[in-house]
Amino acid sequence: MEGMVRKTLLIILCLFISSSLTSSHPKPAKPCKRITLYYHDTMFKGNNVQNASAAAITNSTGLGSFKFGETVVFDDPMTEDGDLASPAMARAQGFYFYNMKNTYNAWFAYSLVFNSSQYKGTINVMGADIMDVDRRDLSVVGGTGDFFMARGIVTFISDVVEGADYFRLKMDVKLFECY
């Protein structure tokens, strides 16, 4: 009888430990902060020095037909209304590289740098931009200032694409951890 009680207690303890290790945090019902911005990327093509905000720093590898291996650094303006002539609310500063041989796909790592009357600080973003999909999510992995230790999702929606020279993304920033 005593052996049976021990086995039962051991099983209950194992189940408790197992459930506490595998349980995840519940997803918040709604974001604690939400910002919509437009990301404007104008590639440097040799003759547009004044307007360029991004430049390839490596060439593609030649493996596949989708710029595989090409790396781009950027300092792109972020506006609230999608008009490139509007004042920038923030700058997106970082890089992306093309990382698939059989379709266009890029991997982004950048900071949204805010220095406006509305916000100060950074939101740090990284993740895959699967360009064949209408809406794609990247992770908010941290922040500073008004966005201290932020966590959340940035949803990319392609808005305007003008070949390889210019593209604009609508970015829906949803923060689920705000301090």
How would you sum up this structure, described in words?
There is one protein chain. The protein has one helix and nine strands. It has 179 residues and is mainly beta. The chain has a single domain, classed as AOC barrel-like. The chain has an eight-stranded antiparallel β-barrel with strand order 1-3-4-5-6-7-8-9. The chain is globular and about 70 Å long.
What is the fold's blueprint, element by element?
Blueprint: H1 2-22, E1 33-42, E2 54-56, E3 71-79, E4 90-98, E5 105-115, E6 120-130, E7 135-143, E8 151-162, E9 166-177
Antiparallel strand pairs: 1-3, 1-9, 2-3, 3-4, 4-5, 5-6, 6-7, 7-8, 8-9
How many domains, in number, for the residues? Answer: 1
Supply the CATH class.
Answer: Mainly Beta
Total strand segments:
9
- What spatial order of strands do you see in the largest sheet? 1-3-4-5-6-7-8-9
The CATH topology annotation reads as: AOC barrel-like
What share of the residues does DSSP label as strand, in percent? over 45%
What is the averaged pLDDT score? 87
How far apart, in Å, are the first and last alpha carbons?
A: 53 Å
User: What is the assigned CATH homologous superfamily?
Assistant: Allene oxide cyclase-like
User: Helical percent range?
Assistant: 10-25%
